């Protein structure tokens, strides 16, 4: 396997700033696409990984998994992509391709282990970790590369590659449609896109936020109602109101107060990844046959479906576009919750 040196931004240890480094990627193979990275979003999962919140970060780590780029080269057997066109890479860059989950377009559950776009053992590189999108190029098998519609603001579309699919997939799986009553917990990167997608699916949307400065903004984003979740009296007014609640909160919180807002047989679906365990009180699910469940990103075909849906409905993220030199400041602001609602790094001629 030929390899090439690529410039990237990453860190060698938890709590150290990201800095420029040289990483190795495989050279383009017969079914590979080589993407010049244009934009890459900053997801809270990148922050969890650089803090080693889950205890499995492989160092050095180069985060970034909301990658929009332009095709720089294609392998001789590539049929879906041409040099010069826009394309995108999200969270998944490899899987076994043959297990029941890969065969049914849910590569995120691959029985042999999904290879994620960063911090995963890379089969092509002898198990060395994959390196993410904060770099000048990415090489990936065309099966995992997305066709990128010509969004008016391409940078603002980058967050769809993780935040978009992570909220779209459960909204579709739990059949959210015209008239569904949907609650969204947390108005961050995922939460603000969830408002837009749930509205486009026809739902009545209520958001629950700990930030009073997001109440008016949530309505601007399309929410029908916005509630300050620290106000327990207000919360009780929503008892048994929701068919479905999407929980995007990144830190430990009490899910029981939200389970009580579900109607009979309603579902609360966790997509946020608080590093600590959450406790569920028996009576909050037993009563009313409620479900507490979870969802992990979405497969490649569904990611493509989501991109096309968002293009059709003119949905992108509200972003702050930054240069790569501002990346450490962006991570510390994300940690403090000081972002409306997603940072995107401009990597063109910039690294
Ligand atoms: P984000 O932009 O930081 O948003 C998280 C939001 O959670 C914050 O804006 C805040 O909303 C709320 N929050 C934070 N701390 C809180 C606390 N202590 N109590 C209550 N609410 C709190 O993060 P993100 O990028 O949207 O990601 C959200 C979570 O989803 C992260 O854990 C991330 O790792 C995870 N994730 C999971 C998947 C998956 O496939 N399952 C994919 C991507 C990301 P308010 O200010 O409105 O209260
Ligand atoms: Zn993500």
TrEMBL record:
Its cofactor is Zn(2+). GO terms for molecular function: alcohol dehydrogenase (NADP+) activity; zinc ion binding. InterPro entries: ADH-like_C (IPR013149), ADH-like_N (IPR013154), ADH_Zn_CS (IPR002328), CAD-like (IPR047109), D-isomer_DH_CS1 (IPR029752), ER (IPR020843), GroES-like_sf (IPR011032), NAD(P)-bd_dom_sf (IPR036291). Keywords: Metal-binding, Oxidoreductase, Zinc. Residues 13-345 form the Enoyl reductase (ER) domain. Gene3D superfamilies: Medium-chain alcohol dehydrogenases, catalytic domain, NAD(P)-binding Rossmann-like Domain. The keyword Metal-binding applies. Belongs to the zinc-containing alcohol dehydrogenase family. This is Enoyl reductase (ER) domain-containing protein. It comes from Acinetobacter nectaris CIP 110549.
């Amino acid at each position: 396997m030929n390899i090439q040196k690529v410039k990237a931004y990453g860190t060698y240890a938890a709590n150290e700033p990201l800095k420029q480094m040289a990483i190795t990627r495989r050279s383009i193979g017969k079914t590979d696409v080589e993407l010049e990275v244009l934009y890459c979003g900053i997801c809270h999962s990148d922050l969890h990984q650089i803090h080693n919140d889950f205890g499995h970060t492989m160092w050095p780590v180069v985060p970034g998994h909301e990658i929009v780029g332009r095709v720089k080269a294609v392998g001789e057997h590539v049929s879906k992509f041409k040099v010069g066109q826009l394309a995108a890479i999200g969270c998944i860059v490899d899987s076994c391709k043959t297990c029941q989950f890969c065969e049914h377009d849910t590569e995120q559950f691959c029985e042999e282990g999904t290879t994620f776009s960063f911090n995963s053992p890379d089969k092509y590189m002898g198990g060395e970790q994959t390196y993410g999108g904060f770099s000048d190029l990415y090489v990936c098998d065309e099966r995992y590369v997305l066709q990128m519609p010509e969004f008016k603001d391409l940078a603002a579309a980058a967050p769809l590659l993780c935040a978009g699919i992570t909220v779209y997939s459960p909204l579709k799986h739990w059949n959210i449609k015209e008239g569904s009553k949907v609650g969204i917990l947390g108005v961050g990167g995922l939460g603000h896109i969830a408002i837009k997608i749930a509205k486009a699916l026809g739902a009545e949307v209520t958001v629950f936020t700990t930030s009073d400065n997001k109440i008016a903004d949530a309505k601007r984003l399309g929410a029908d109602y916005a509630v300050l979740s620290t106000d327990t009296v207000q919360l009780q007014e929503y008892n048994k109101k929701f068919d479905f609640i999407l929980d995007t909160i990144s830190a430990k919180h009490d899910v029981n107060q939200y389970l009580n807002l579900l109607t009979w047989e309603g579902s609360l679906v966790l997509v946020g990844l608080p590093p600590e365990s959450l406790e569920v009180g028996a009576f909050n699910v037993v009563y009313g046959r409620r479900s507490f469940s979870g969802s992990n990103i979405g497969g490649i075909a569904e990611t493509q479906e989501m991109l096309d849906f968002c293009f059709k409905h003119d949905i992108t993220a509200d972003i702050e576009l930054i240069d790569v030199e501002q990346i450490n400041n962006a991570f510390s602001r994300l940690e403090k919750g000081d972002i409306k609602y997603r940072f995107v790094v401009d990597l063109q001629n910039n690294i």
